[in-house]
Amino acid sequence: MDPVSENPSSFQPKCPALSWGVKIKRKLKSAAPFLGRFRPLVGQCCHQCTPESLGLKLLRNTPPLGFQNLTSVNETHTGYRGWLVRRVCCLLFVWGCEVHPSPAGDRRHRVHGSERCVRQALVAACSPDETKMMELVMPEVRDHLGRLLALTQTFISPYLLRLVSWMLLKVFSLMFCSVQVNRNQLAALHRATQLKSPLVYVCVRQSGIDHALICLTLFCHNLSVPYTIYPAHVRQSWLRSILQRLGVVLLPEGSESERDAEMDSLYSPVMTSFTGELLREGASLSVGICGSRGHGGQWLARVHQAISDGLVPDVSIVPVGISYDCLPRFFTRPQAGVMSALRFAVSLLKGGHRGSVRIHFAQAFSLKEMCQSGKCRVDGGRPLQDLLLTAILQDRMDSIFSQKDVSWLLPPAVMPELSPADRQQTIALTLHLMYSSTTTMAVMSTSLVSCLLLHKHRKAHAQFECVDVDVFGLSHVCTTAGFIDSANPEGFCVCLCKACAVSAMLSEVVGCGGGGDPEFDVVLGQEELTEKSLQLTHLLSPGFVPPCQTAHGFALDVVDSMVRCGVLVMEEVQKDTPVCDFMKKQGVLSWAVSDNPDQSSDSDCEEPDARSYKLSQPSQCPELLFFLCSLLSVRLRALCWALESLHYLPSPITERDCLSQLHTHLKNRAQLDKAHYESSSIDLVRLVLRTFIDLGVLTEDRQRGDVYLDVSPLFSQCAHKVKLLQFFKQFIYMYN
């Protein structure tokens, strides 16, 4: 008998031999994907102005919670399951969200009884010794005060808030493909609410639905919905009543704009008392600021005044960055009415452009700590014309190392009761929040594609009229290329400044050489690079450089970052060779050294004249350098076009007419050149007009309640206008 059959248990079938590849795979351990799990921690508060708030570590990146589409609501967001639940899941979700009611109560009487409000009402009526005049005027003042006090009756109705939130989820799902929010940042907001300080959300105004997106995000995540400061003039009484029941603070009846309301002597004290009472109740606020128009800063002053008056011990500020693929067409201006609602409904039915939205909440920081730290300051600033005109007209660089004065962000006519120190503090806070909000904004795919298309196809179509794509659309490109630190997103502005500074110096080398193709094998001095970067920094709109950093320090960071990222390499200089001879041999342009002792910094370990740099050798470096230059050239080209169009404008001309006519001239110029349509947007024209006023190209004359502009005598001369035009064009030399 077969031995195998006698002992069946001894039978062992042969296993197929494993290949070496299978053996290696068995030893490998599965690992979680790296992409997207270790994101940079974006949105931290300033380490110089608020070190204690930063030490709280409210914003954490571990564990990574990812992103959430706010408009994607399904049955998993409710506590129910079934076919019917899937049909009404959005309604069930909204009904299950936690609502923090905020009734008005006796707020009106508290505001009316405040010392500030009563005192200002008497001052507005007449002086105390004019008793008869007071008796005649006081009824009119009382009636006007009653209309203003009606704004303090704003409150948040829980039932109406749930209904409107459900409608907004439906409407935003039609308007946008997705509304993305960062869950880690929302978790940080929940931690911030445990500090027992009122939260004030601050964003840069872009469209009329900014605050609606913020409120809807907070509502869907069981956070307190803030009172919204929305400077819109609403004529319909029923619409005003609905908005006031949603916590929206509107302009008073009879005021066409925010500027008209602030000119009222009673409006400011009433709103200051109203803001203090809201914060004392523990309510949150949502405020929008605008750098080009100087709006929104007065509300920050009122929040700070509440702390100074002892109404609240402290307030937590939360910068908010909102990024759109495409701005909603009917919400680019603060307006509200039946016709605008009908136009919006028609646009939804037609479909149209449906982009995405990204909402980022930065880490909350203490307002009291920022104001008491003394780091966030703008005192000692000089007007832009004092900083740049000597460099433009006289080729002197001794004045460019000072700070730029931006007092127009909170002019003296707005809140005249503020002391000069408080006004300067508010301006510094506004600048810092503009910087924090813009650096918190996400990079959208449309911005990246627009940047690349505008660079590769310079005769772009007119649809690429985007004002912010030249700056914010680049940060991801720079990060992937290794040009900035991914945890320091504000570095992309440094990249643009350094590229334009190098381009300006290369253009001067070409000009000295008699024209021709640009030469990249040249030596660039550190002092020249710093001066060019400073000049360009002063031309940027407010909010790109934080007030806790000097312009000179920012320019030095520009040069240092060029070396770190590899665009420039340091050129060795022989110690036994005189620097002036070395500069002459290498063909380097040089300027006189400033005697200002404040120019010294920690990075100046060597003599400034002995340090020089060259472009790195890889062939792709000039192409990338010019790509960075092309992004800021959008704004610089608008400055050139507007300067060339000034002689077409009548003088004097109102500010509104000047804005409209300049916009028309820039659009005609783009149509004539059949290129650079992105330099003719209305937002760029506003920035250009502000720059011309600060530079002294245009003079302001306030009369009859309006602002009239006229070309200054200095720039009526053709020679000075040509010098200014050359100053603008030097930074866009390669893209004329």
List the helices and strands and how they pair.
Elements: H1 3-6, H2 20-27, H3 51-55, E1 67-69, H4 83-87, H5 89-96, H6 107-112, H7 115-125, H8 131-149, H9 158-175, E2 178-182, H10 183-193, E3 199-204, H11 210-220, E4 227-229, H12 237-244, E5 248-249, H13 258-262, H14 267-280, E6 285-289, H15 297-308, E7 316-324, H16 338-350, E8 356-361, E9 365-366, H17 367-373, H18 384-393, H19 420-440, H20 445-456, H21 469-472, H22 475-481, H23 491-512, E10 523-525, H24 526-539, H25 551-564, E11 568-571, H26 579-586, E12 612-615, H27 620-644, E13 653-654, H28 655-673, H29 682-695, E14 698-703, E15 706-711, H30 718-729
Protein name: Glycerol-3-phosphate acyltransferase 2, mitochondrial
Region (Disordered): 593-612
GO biological process, one term: phospholipid biosynthetic process
